[in-house]
Amino acid sequence: MKNMGAIMKQMQQLQARAEETQAKLAATEITGSAGGGSVQVTLNGKGEMRRVKIDPGAMGGPADLEIVEDLIVAAFNDAKAKADAHAQQEMGKLTAGLPLPPGFKLPI
Questions:
Q1: Per the domain annotation, does 1 fall within a domain?
Q2: DSSP letters of 10-73?
Q3: Is there a domain that residue 44 lies in?
Q4: How many domains does the chain divide into?
Q5: For 71, which of 13, 34, 60, 85 could close a Cys bridge (C-beta 3.0–4.6 Å)?
Q6: pLDDT tens digit string along 57-94?
């Protein structure tokens, strides 16, 4: 039973580190862009949108509205992909060295 106690303690430490990592991710800002930087979307590391910035030069008139809308979607997707990769990298640090089977995901 000593091993079970050690495993439980290790899991508690992992949970605490996971909570710290989640807080760190919430504070991290990642920006994606589209249209040569004319549209930028900033997310936190958890993928929540924080800011949208549109270069006034991107809006030439009503005909450009659809283009700018498409650029916002592209910039969001760019930022979301970066945020997801960053979050995966940070969470991967938590499980480094643990004897987990390949593909095992912790419910954290």
A1: no
A2: HHHHHHHHHHHHHHHHHH-EEEEEETTTTEEEEEETTS-EEEEEE-GGG--SGGGHHHHHHHHH
A3: yes
A4: 1
A5: 34
A6: 877 777 787 888 888 889 999 998 998 898 888 877 87
